[in-house]
Design goal:
CATH topology of the largest domain in chain A: Rossmann fold
Strand content of chain A: 5-15%
Number of helices of chain A: 17
Oligomer: homodimer
CATH superfamily of the largest domain in chain A: NAD(P)-binding Rossmann-like Domain
Largest interface: A-B, 65 and 65 residues
Number of domains of chain A: 2
CATH architecture of the largest domain in chain A: 3-Layer(aba) Sandwich
Structural class of chain A: alpha/beta
Distance between the termini of chain A: 44 Å
Strand order of the largest sheet of chain A: 5-4-3-6-7-8-9-10
Radius of gyration of chain A: 24 Å
């Protein structure tokens, strides 16, 4: 997953999303810190986690919380990130015993603080020397697609350089017998065809003949209140470059994952493991896009698609994962993983294979937030030019402070282009990392007061708890994510509001109201 | 579901797929039979099932098997079909106490025989007079798409005439208070916009002012060994035209479905119920097409996709219904239901909505069987012109004698076009209803002997049980449906066979062998 990038860079300082300032260290300070780390790590099994973003910080804390049967920590864990204004605050946060970027999972806060402050087996540094003391190096640096909106498969491009720089960084320092475990979602075939040659090259330069130990095990970290659980108590697939790598990987993963309840699944080769991750996320993206086109039909046919899907999802095992209509797809993975697969087909396997449906699904998902605009125009037929629109919800998941690729941003831009004044509200964030100059409203009732129309984009608890009696006047409402239950919509309607819901049609069903 | 159409029509005779001949009755005989039925039905609650095809015959038997708490039959059931050479054999079979077209479900055989021979509460007739004695009329006549291969949505056409004729047939005779329950999969909005006006028109002609009782409850009948279970012990959605229709429908369905274990789900209107069926089948078709494009990539990337999917399907509730690579999509529903939805969008709701992904999935599925041709050409690089190819499997489901829209037919045609001699074998059928002049081989080992290459298209038990030691010589094998386990493929390879498997790549993984 991608690290949050702050726009408010200042020389010599790295500022966390919550405003905490960390002075960037000098090389001398970094070296001194490493000397201290090396002293503390002596005699211990060291795991280095490269990249302290969404995934890396949670993985580091999870590994640090692993114990033997006597409850003693198994590892001394070092998180490595860069001493840049973009990234250094994450190092600062971890060393303060705090989750970088905040978390909705109290277990995450607890195990990270415990590891740093009580067990003293987790720290973070910008020192690349730390790679040299690691028995295992876990790679959690992002591999980004340059532009997720490209239409032609030949145009799909990925930021190879940053990732390759990260690989070389540890290849130059690593112990010859260290295991490299790549958790990053990468194109199919990438570890063998791109990572391995780099490792071999750097190791050859160091005169190391020994075969490298390399494996891929994609993370399945799910932002939200089960963050740590999604690492420690969830199924995991992996594959090693060779038998020795696979063996070491199995042992390592089993040491911090509950492999008894969630048996580890070994694949034949790293490409299979890499494909597994991009396939499962493409599947999810596909199923979302599929329902979106039926949403459009349902609205035209005045059918409440939500109830139709409820009647289908009872078919356990075949249809129970059918998605509901929605506002849009955000986050880091579902918006780009399919592009990694297509890039791989074209550039690594040199085939003419086109993942037609898969890429079309991405296109549909990208445009999905604009459908809200259609509904909104029905309630504001005279145009948006002098209107104030409040969008409730910026994050891409409810009650999770994660705004990467927020679908709200897509809608916001179109609304502003159409001349509307846009306010945003979101109870899960204080500021919008990708749009730091956009004010995030704090008081929902006041914000509602100012708006000509409100869009409910994310089913945050606070919105679900909203009562019609809190409103100071009737509202125009577009419910883009089934935030209001049908019963509640009935109450709002009784209070004079006009409501349109995505995938609900214009008619009354189970209490859901006509707009007019 | 569609009735099997026999090509071997003869005047005055209707011949069942097993060869049994039934003389077509005269109108006089039909009238006499009805008089007898009316006598037997007197004082009983009569249910008429219109259409004795795959669905209708099973529904009729299921309703006839419903009892009150004392074990007494609730209904006298009359199945109606036409006195044509195409259809009359179904009437004959039912009256003989036999399942028309055969069944893989012993419960189906048992309850049908019991109803006809012991409980005497099920019979079949061609007499339309029987509609006049029904309290409930269940519509199970097919509504066919004229051509399932059309590319343009404006070209999608359905056989309205036959269906409308069927509706008029009972509208002219029905009791004014009879409930009409449509189980046929129809376009969204069809019952209200097409069926209802016809009923009103015919009833007005008869001077009936009373509102008609009409409902839609799509069947979810699954061919195979759980045929009757898929009617009696499975979830069911329904919707009535009005409250009275819905109430009658709920009561009726609950009388022969185990609604305690599988609660009935009432939808707001008939269009929602109609959409539910075409949506759930489109979803399935979509997921099949989605995996097919990843199958092609996996093969190019030398990845055993089967093992990758196994590693993904552990994610219960979100990914456990991911499909595996396959040979193709056959049957009556998945090949056409999406077209009904699109027809509806265009013709009933007059929208410009295009179900892009949904229609593209159908196109991909239609071409899927031709992928086997690609694999086959790799094993026979010198062309197919003087080669004999044995295709093992004609039905679209394993061990179910149902050959409608068999993907084998698509492959067969292409092979014959390429100059190959094609043999087919299938343990589940004696003859191929849609291709009555094609010999279905009976002896697998002899057929294997004759072939230059064998395609395993359907995972029938007989094929799974095949042992390498039965072979008289090494074979070229394309396994298009994971019929051979990887261990078995290993044995065949050891016996000198060359094997390619769909979605397996060319490499050795878990014992699955290289072709060369």
């Amino acid at each position: 997953m991608k690290t949050v990038r702050l726009i408010r860079n200042r020389p010599g300082v790295s500022i966390a999303p919550d405003g905490t300032r960390y002075s960037l260290p000098s090389q001398n300070e970094i070296d001194q810190q490493f000397a201290e780390i090396a002293r503390r790590a002596e005699g211990k099994k060291v795991v280095v986690v490269q990249g302290l973003g969404f995934v890396g910080s949670a993985v580091a804390a999870s590994i640090a919380s692993a114990t033997d049967r006597q409850g003693r920590p198994l590892y001394f864990v070092v998180g490595i990130d860069q001493a840049s204004s973009d990234s250094f605050w994450k190092i600062g946060k971890v060393n303060d015993g705090l989750v970088p970027g905040g978390s909705a999972d109290i277990e995450f806060d607890r195990i990270l603080e415990q590891a740093v402050k009580e067990r003293n087996n987790l720290c973070a540094t910008a020192s690349e020397e730390a790679y040299g003391i690691a028995e295992t190096i876990v790679v959690d640096v992002p591999l980004d697609v340059v532009n997720t909106t490209v239409e032609l498969r030949s145009e799909i491009d990925i930021n190879l350089r940053e990732f390759e720089t990260a690989i070389r960084a540890f290849a130059r320092k690593m112990r010859r017998d260290a295991l490299i475990l790549v958790e990053t979602t990468v194109p199919i075939g990438f570890c063998e065809r791109r990572v391995l040659p780099l490792l071999k090259e750097e190791r050859a330069r160091r005169g190391i003949q020994q075969p490298v130990l390399l494996a891929h095990a994609a993370e399945r970290v799910t932002p939200g209140k089960n963050y740590v659980s999604s690492i420690r108590r969830f199924w995991r697939s992996f594959a090693g470059y060779d038998a020795a790598s696979a063996c070491r990987t199995r042992e390592f993963l089993a040491s911090f994952i509950d492999a008894e309840s969630y048996p580890l699944y070994e694949l034949h080769d790293m490409a299979s493991s890499e494909m597994g991750k991009v396939l499962e996320n493409s599947y999810r993206a596909m199923n979302i896009a599929f329902i979106h086109e039926w949403t459009l039909l349902a609205e035209r046919a005045n059918i409440n698609l939500w109830t139709v899907i409820d009647g289908i999802r009872v078919r356990k095992g075949t249809h129970d994962n059918m998605r509901y209509p929605g506002f849009g797809v955000g986050g880091y993975c579902l918006t780009k993983d399919s592009l990694l697969a297509q890039w791989s087909a074209t550039h690594l396997f040199k085939t003419d294979t086109v993942l037609e449906l898969t890429l079309q699904a991405l296109r549909i998902n990208r445009k999905m937030p604009l459908h809200t605009l259609t509904l909104l125009s029905e309630l504001l037929p005279d145009g948006l030019s002098d209107k104030t629109i409040l969008i409730c919800g910026v994050t891409y998941l409810p009650d999770v402070p994660d705004t990467r690729n927020s679908p709200t941003e897509i809608l916001l831009e179109e609304l502003e282009n159409a001349g509307a004044t846009v306010l945003v509200h979101d109870p899960a964030i204080r500021s919008w990392a990708e749009r730091p100059f956009m004010v995030v409203q704090r008081d929902l009732v006041s914000a509602l007061e100012e708006a000509d129309l409100v869009v409910f984009a994310v089913p945050h608890r606070d919105y679900e708890a909203l009562q019609a009696e809190f409103l100071r006047r009737p509202l125009l409402i577009v419910d883009s994510n089934n935030v209001l239950t049908d019963i509640k919509a009935e109450e709002f309607h009784a209070a004079g509001c006009r409501i349109l819901g995505v995938g609900k049609g214009h008619w009354r069903a189970r209490g859901y109201h006509l707009a007019t």
